């Protein structure tokens, strides 16, 4: 498994008719074999179109989703289950994104059920955690991260943690153009590693293999510096992944750093 992981979270952007031009251009710009793992996470409606293009191009890019429900099937209007995503070829599922927590009221308990459902079906959850600006200013960053990890991973067995990726996304850095500094990100990544180490009952350093991504205003200009820190194992990219030229630059810089 490649150490670095770059995930493009399209959020609620691009229709299914618009998706192919973005992906086709990206595939032209990025080599088929990469020393870095790349995941495209389009909206649910574009997943089939993107899956088809990736399969036809025989490219090693993976597919991800931006959310999933915890039950497999049933009367849950508007929800999409993990088996439905697996059936479309999704490998990763982003969970607990701050936009879902803050704009849609998603609670830790729901995030936890989703993490467990994704693991149960053999897919890979990307659990997002991060503090607001007010929480950082009040010195609560570590406590917030610890709460989100403890609650989000409640009941997850130690051996399942190897399939988990964490994305540290300070809310104040998302879509603002003001990314966290490498030092700020690395400090929180160290805290995350220590919390996960404790949850997994690992000895000190045992959580070293855990992949922790940074997200929040990642660009082609700052990805190189971010990945120079050994604490940062990749990026969850929002706005910049919608421009194939920029996203390809990010991927190619990450490949050089791998
Ligand atoms: O999931 C991606 C993050 O929310 C970051 O978004 P951004 O790169 O537009 O700041």
TrEMBL record:
Gene3D superfamilies for the chain: Aldolase class I (3.20.20.70)
Gene Ontology, cellular component aspect: cytosol
Pathway the protein acts in: Carbohydrate degradation; glycolysis; D-glyceraldehyde 3-phosphate from glycerone phosphate: step 1/1; Carbohydrate biosynthesis; gluconeogenesis
The protein's enzyme class: isomerase
Complex formation: Homodimer.
NCBIfam families: tim
Family: Belongs to the triosephosphate isomerase family.
Protein name: Triosephosphate isomerase
Native source organism of the sequence: Nitrospira tepida
Gene transcribed to yield this protein: tpiA
């Amino acid at each position: 498994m490649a150490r670095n992981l770059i995930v493009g979270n399209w959020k609620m952007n691009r229709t299914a008719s618009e998706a192919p031009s973005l992906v086709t251009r990206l595939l032209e710009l990025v080599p088929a074999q990469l020393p870095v793992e790349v995941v495209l996470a389009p909206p649910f409606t574009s997943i089939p179109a993107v899956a088809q293009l990736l399969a036809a191009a025989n490219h090693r890019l993976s597919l991800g989703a931006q959310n999933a429900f915890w039950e497999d099937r049933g009367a849950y209007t508007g929800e999409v289950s993990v088996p439905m995503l697996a059936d479309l070829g999704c490998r990763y599922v982003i969970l607990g994104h701050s936009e879902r927590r803050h704009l849609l009221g998603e609670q830790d308990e729901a995030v936890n059920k989703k993490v467990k459902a994704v693991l149960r079906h053999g897919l890979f959850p990307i659990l997002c955690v991060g503090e607001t600006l007010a929480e950082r200013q009040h010195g609560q960053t570590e406590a917030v991260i610890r709460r989100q990890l403890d609650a989000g991973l409640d009941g997850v067995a130690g051996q399942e943690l190897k399939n988990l990726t964490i994305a540290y996304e300070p809310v104040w850095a998302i879509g603002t153009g003001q990314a966290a500094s490498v030092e700020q990100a690395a400090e929180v990544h160290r805290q995350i590693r220590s919390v996960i180490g404790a949850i997994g009952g690992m000895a000190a350093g045992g959580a070293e293999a855990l992949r922790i991504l940074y997200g929040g205003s990642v660009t082609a200009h700052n990805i190189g510096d971010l990945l120079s820190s050994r604490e940062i194992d990749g990026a969850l990219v929002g706005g910049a992944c919608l421009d194939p030229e920029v996203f390809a630059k990010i991927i190619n810089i990450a490949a050089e750093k791998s």
